[in-house]
Amino acid sequence: MKKTLIIDCDPGVDDATGLLLALAAPDLDVLAVTTVGGNVPAAQTARNACILRQIAGREDVPVFMGAEQPLRRAPAGAGEFHGAEGLGDLAPVETRQSYEAETASEALIRLIHSREPKTVTLVVMGPMTNVALALRQDPSLADRIQQIIAMGGARSEGGNITASAEFNIWADPDAAHEVLSTSVPVVLLGLDATHQVRATEERIAAIETIDSDPARTVAAMLRFSQRVERTIVGWDAAPLHDPCTIAYLMRPELFEVCPAHIRIETESDLTRGHTAVEFRVAADSAPHLWATKADAEGVFDLITRTLSDGAIK
Ligand code: RIB
Ligand code: CA
To answer: Is the pLDDT of residue 313 over 70?
Structure first.
């Protein structure tokens, strides 16, 4: 049985790997890609999604451009980690097909209502602005979305944009607060899990052996992140954040998740976007799941095999 999903993202080099993985996976039915301003501005993330869709040979999947800025904060940016255009060293190209006229939040509402309740997973790889806007416009979505699997947040690992916050949640903490305050089941894959999933030299080299444009693109993104990580952060292998959301959807057993009540700091400038992960809640009433462990080898094996199978023609 195929799993049906919509991917909301801000490509972004790790978003790119997550998108190319999902678009190559035979057991995933990607209804649409919606994009949001985040790593780079909204017009670029929408264009980048169209480029990645074309590389994947999946122009059957529509792209919808979303929010250009957070609900009430100034637009963020992470160009130093994703390149000025958002796809590392990959130069932007004109695509055969552009994004649709409908906005991301309108498309989310229409597409989720077009399917039976609780049959569509929403995978979020960037700031949650589009999701919050859709839920504001149509609160009944909360009863129709099967689950939200989002990359975001930090607990034991500390932050990556400030001492206490991870970029996606920090970029739009108000949106994250609104989404996590609804009844939608949310699985949050934060830095506590994604920092365990490192793109080592051996893992990148394995992807470089695959003869396909998607695999070559993933390898190029990983190589870019490897260089950036070594020069900016001083780590030898870059963490692979966003693809963990797709890996969790495909093979949840690769992760350990714990029931929790997750709340977002929205008032303090010092700790803006902090995810307060409270495990001391009754498991059967905890509204969220927080990822504590990841099987890195299993995640890369999944990525490599999915891209390799997709390359076999
Ligand atoms: O903190 C990592 C997250 O921020 C990832 O989604 C990455 O693409 C950036 O958006
Ligand atoms: Ca992202």
So the answer is: no
Q: Is residue 126 lining ligand 1, measured as CB closer than 6 Å?
A: yes
Is 241's C-beta closer than 6 angstroms to any atom of ligand 1? yes
Coil, helix or strand for 262? strand
Selected catalytic residue, list 177, 195, 241, 274: 241
- At 67, list the tokens: 């929010």
Predicted TM-score (pTM) of this structure: 0.98
Query: How many Å lie between the centroid of ligand 2 and the Cα of residue 308?
Result: 24
CATH at residue 216: 3.90.245.10
Q: Residue 85's closest CA among 58, 49, 128, 53?
A: 49
Per the structure, the complete domain to which residue 233 belongs is given by 3-311
Structural domain tally of the chain?
A: 1
| Residues 78-130: tens digit of each pLDDT | 888 999 999 999 999 999 999 999 999 999 999 999 999 999 999 999 999 99
Q: How far is the CA of 168 from the centre of ligand 1 (A)?
A: 6
Helix (H) or strand (E) holding 177: helix 173-180
241 is catalytic: yes
| Cα 313 to Cα 211, 212, 309, distances in angstroms | 10, 10, 9
Q: What is the mean pLDDT of the chain?
A: 97
Give the per-residue pLDDT at 311: 77
Ligand 2 (single-atom ion) residues, CB below 5 Å: 10, 12, 15, 125-126, 242
Contact 131, 122 (CB under 8 A): yes
Mean pLDDT of 4-33: 98
Query: Ligand 1 centroid vs 254 CA: distance in angstroms?
Result: 20
**Pocket flag, ligand 1, residue 175 (CB < 6 Å):** no
* Dist. CA 99–CA 24, nearest whole Å: 20
